[in-house]
């Protein structure tokens, strides 16, 4: 039981209460520190364990080749490679996860697994022509890829793990990025069994994506990123090539592999390198080219169309029709399922205008649409974990009715133009609805005037050299580095016209596609047979001249039918859909150039005049966020209230404790000090004061005498309430002393060294000391006290320049301020020179003569003897003697002689009548003269031939005292 | 020989007594007439006292007024130097940007650009730069030093023997330190704002996420930021006071507190700790940056305030408990 936890606890409690003085620092501290560290270590280990405890739920998979019948007559068999990801609990709703172009079921493995962890049955498959699936790629043809997907829905209807809506109607959602996203839309439009969909970074019209024409005769739609989607577009040859190559087996660049930056994530300098490394591998499960067939695994129709466009740079009617038939635009008017459209802001392949069109079309069909623009895209990375979670939430709500309604709002991520190192650089703006949808409000557009004269631009022969806007497929590499993003753009002089706005007065947050009205005319005769091909870009021009092309995006447009006489045509151009805060002092720069590396441009040289149509401005879309009146979370607020309440309780409790009845003994009201049975012991058994009792009467100068370590200072500290007695008590004027006892105000003290603020003068110290007592100024008696200190001019010097004696005197003056009824001085003459000591005695005696009381401690007998009228002698904490000084000092008629021959002297003294008790002690001879005058005894000694060096009263006290000190010296 | 003389020399008293005593004989002495005057004045002074035993005119509730404590602290060189430094710091940073601009050349979109975009941004930058170390250190200095330095000067016992009730002493000192801290915390952004307005103009405040708020709104945001920082640093105050009553070495109290703040920030860097980092007292130290937004998210600031107040309450109560029973020996 000795070492039981409770005993030990009590022990340590006791210690902490009596932590005092010198032995405090070692041992105890380390022990407490160790305990604290142990508690912290165990606590955090527990928390870590708890935290790591929630492993993701297990997911099981099932691979299968599914035989499906597709084709216009549903009679063409095809083998589709599938993997079914099963959640912990089944049956559950299913989600089809379609992969991007050039990928396979392996490339969506992590997405499918995540969905399964969220509790969905996820089905990943390799689309026909990809991975180990059979068939040829027909670019999401309704008869093939879409029919395949519908076949998979049939298959899901037969799986026992999938929740069914009805016979042959599973509860199913569909998602996928890029090529897979388009499939999601096409499937939802053709198969009503799909209950919800979340297409990511995909196209509305493949024709417009690969052959865009952003020019129209009037401003396009009311939505923020609307594009004119004019016919006869400009061929986006670099992306188209990458796409075609991906179908041939060279996967990689076509789909983003790294996560896009999300709000709260930190911009990592390494992401660029990671993104750069990714395309080199084959994440999409690309397959080696197996034959010399120039069409690879594409169908004849697709192959022909690509060849036609790639060689001529223009799409013929057949190609346009093909592309349209395989695009979601062909079915969007039939989509009624809840749709979450996710599009990337870093996407030169399928820009924001594509999802904008899809949103408008689906909304017009009556489906609820939520639109999210995130920082990634084909150039910027796939959706990050937060956005993927949002997609899972979408299915959770729409397939299972679980969770909060994600609503039909609009969210877009804003990447800050300015970066503070390591701080989040992306935020999300939320609006209640995507503007410009059916029944909704149109997008707010702000006019921004740009200035610039009419400029002449030249299309070089062969379209070379060409301006550079971005690096298709490599955009992610570049956007990973904040230094490079949007800065690689190059406009060649002579090929580009520039129009600049005035510096912004405040931030302008562009969210969508700005439109500009341009005037274009030909120079030098007939217009080119291919029409005028131009590229429009919107730069953010910093005050220091740095130009940034947001999203590396460019709008290509073709103007046909320009008059040969050089008269201008006015056209409205939709600039690329971007999200970009244009900061104050930055300008917007509109650049119109004749070439772009990523596009097929006319080979014939030509010259045009370009200007901004007079009286028109850029029309910049802005989508203000709704103030989500996010009240502070209730939990912490309640917590704050509770903590403050507890503090108030603690304060009240402390107050009540202090209010405990003052312990007064009215009989002692006139006695300056009574000490009864006072003990103070320190941990380790050292008793500094042991059962001390004595009493001081009014008007006395009491000396507390004892060698160093006798417990004098400890006693005085207890008298001042600085330390708590272990036993017994002290009463001053009848009031029991405790820390802060009001009666302490009647005591003036100087205990163990002066305590002054070294940076203040002596006078300022005393004045501030008195001010701190809160007592009336006129009762301080500074003048008298300072005169006693007698510091002269030094009183206005800083205390740190004082000698110890000066501090001592100042401290005594401080103790004397207000003339306390009891003045306690600990070793007051330390550091004083003899004349000062003499004066000090005088001061103390005179002070006591005013009816006040003085207690002086000293280790010097002479000191006490000369100053005090009563004395208390202490040794090792105990009272040795007490009484009037003269009683103790000069005990009776005894005398002491210091002689050269003690034996003879003793003999001689013994011969004197009346003298008795003669003793020898070294060269001292003590004798009780008993009435015989000392001079007589002296004469006797001299006559006996003894040389007397010294003669005086015997000092018993000194004997005792020296003995004590001697013991100290030789323990 | 005695403990007291040893203590005196510890306190930086360098003057040699033997030299000083010779000098003091001529300058330091008590005029015998002064003793008479003292005796006369003392015998005239009343010795009346109150029922609670205190001398007439003494009220425990009037001891150590905040005003007096402020004077005691404000006349210290370290307080003056610190406040002076806070005034100087924005100018130093401005100078650094001016000097640095010549060498770096291209700086658009960088750290510097954010700071020099406008006056409010400069203030935000200064608060960011000072937030991790300087601001906690200021609070640690004012609170950690307050009791421990009195102990090291040996003046604590005279305050307690006055008597200033212990809890009152702790409270008054905490109030004074709090006022000084808040003043210092407000002084820095105020000077930074002034420097910013003069050199960078009163433009919009732009957050790292590209959000922009008007100058007038940003002034309110900065005011709230100072309020939040003051609340968030309460934990520093609590810990510093606790260490201050636990040790007689001011450096130990201040240094110990700063050390804990640094440790907490280092741990906060370890993302593997995940949600555990929410329990670190410095975790929400920069939540005030949420104020630089059109749509202010109060969640983190509320959590930060809760965390800080809880830590402050724990340390504060520990400090009060320890100081109540502590034996004062210095």
Automatic annotation (TrEMBL), chain A:
Composition bias, Low complexity: 272-281
Keyword hit for Cell cycle: no
SMART domains: AAA, PepX_C
Entry keyword set: ATP-binding, Hydrolase, Membrane, Nucleotide-binding, Transmembrane, Transmembrane helix, Transport
Coiled coil: none
Gene Ontology MF, one: ATP binding
Pfam families in the record: ABC_tran, Peptidase_S15, PepX_C
Sequence ranges assigned to domain ABC transporter in this UniProt record: 673-901
Region (Disordered): 256-289
Annotated InterPro entries: AAA+_ATPase, AB_hydrolase_fold, ABC_transporter-like_ATP-bd, ABC_transporter-like_CS, Galactose-bd-like_sf, P-loop_NTPase, Xaa-Pro-like_dom, Xaa-Pro_dipept_C
Transmembrane segments: 637-656
Homology family: Belongs to the ABC transporter superfamily.
Designated name of the protein: ABC-2 type transport system ATP-binding protein
Organism of this sequence: Actinokineospora iranica
Automatic annotation (TrEMBL), chain B:
Region listing for Disordered, in residue ranges: 1-26
Superkingdom field: Bacteria
PANTHER family (alphabetical): INTEGRAL MEMBRANE PROTEIN-RELATED, MEMBRANE PROTEIN
Protein name: ABC-2 type transport system permease protein
Natural source organism: Actinokineospora iranica
Organism lineage: Bacteria, Bacillati, Actinomycetota, Actinomycetes, Pseudonocardiales
